[in-house]
Amino acid sequence: MAVPLKPNQSLNGPPVAYDAELERVEIELLLEGVFRHYGFDFRSYAYASIRRRLWKRIESEQLQSISELQALVLHDAAAMERLLLDLSVSVTAMFRDPGFYEVFRTDVVPLLRTYPFIRIWHAGCSTGEEVYSTAIVLEEEGLLDRTRIYATDINDVVLQEARGGIFPLNRMQEYTENYIRAGGRKSFSEYYTAKYDGALFSPSLTRNVVFSQHNLVTDRSFSEFNVIFCRNVLIYFDRDLQNRVHSLFYESLVMFGILAMGSKESLRFSEYEACYELLHPREKLYRKVD
Ligand SMILES: C[S@@+](CC[C@H](N)C(=O)[O-])C[C@H]1O[C@@H](n2cnc3c(N)ncnc32)[C@H](O)[C@@H]1O
Quick check: CB of 127 below 6 Å from ligand 1? Predict the structure, then answer.
């Protein structure tokens, strides 16, 4: 039986005596309800991570149980939006893993030069820092004008921020260091103007970018791409769901197209491993060859 929380009891997980089996039932019911009512499908996300995030939301909403959270989010779309922000972990950074962008510049850009027109998909782009980073590299390499970037995420709130192109000023020192380590060619401050506590990035960087909502779990492929970035997204999915998303990426990549994954992710053990060659093991860059 679910045991109510004592007042002020802090939650990093369920209360001590919360029944583990019942907890799983409640979580499955909540995820099913969210899917059927709102269309957001978190049913195949990694359980431990979903569980932790649900309890965090329960604490913030000052509730006692998963069932109470279910009732709240099903009847209150604003509560669902808050839960969506928790479930869809939006942590990101400009030139995140600088070595990755360095290798992108040295190993991928020369391949892209061979195409008259380049299509790139940033899947799970969050607030857009990754997209602006790629746009900066392509601008410096003289390729941005012949590139179209589709930047998508499940979450419309983060996409709004991405469109705005204003990032916290207090992160600019970290981003400048990342940019230099990534092999940046200019002074990083040339790309933004400081405004109050924000850094407004040059709108010309997104002149060929389309930001749009797309759910990797339920939506289909919408074009053919030369490069797909999907970094630090699949890590939250279970293996079946990862395979489904890999099928979507495989369909969406041109032959010899590039798949860029996050540092903790890999195609190893996926059903699609044999369809790709490993272009750069450390930076998790793959090339479709079959
Ligand atoms: C940790 S962020 C990664 C951001 C960026 N790619 C990076 O590596 O810095 C994960 C993003 O994946 C998005 N996401 C989670 N599930 C998704 C889904 N089913 N379809 C599309 N995006 C999803 C989240 O909303 C979040 O913005």
Answer: no
